[in-house]
Amino acid sequence: MTTAGELDRYGGHRKREVKERQTL
User: Fold this and answer.
1) What pTM, to 2 d.p., does this model score?
2) How far is CA 20 from CA 5, 9, 15, 17, 24, in A?
């Protein structure tokens, strides 16, 4: 299983990418 830190990092990056794509 991934650690909470890893999940936070992945989640943050993924969410950022999605938000950027939606705005673009």
Assistant:
1) 0.23
2) 22, 16, 9, 5, 6
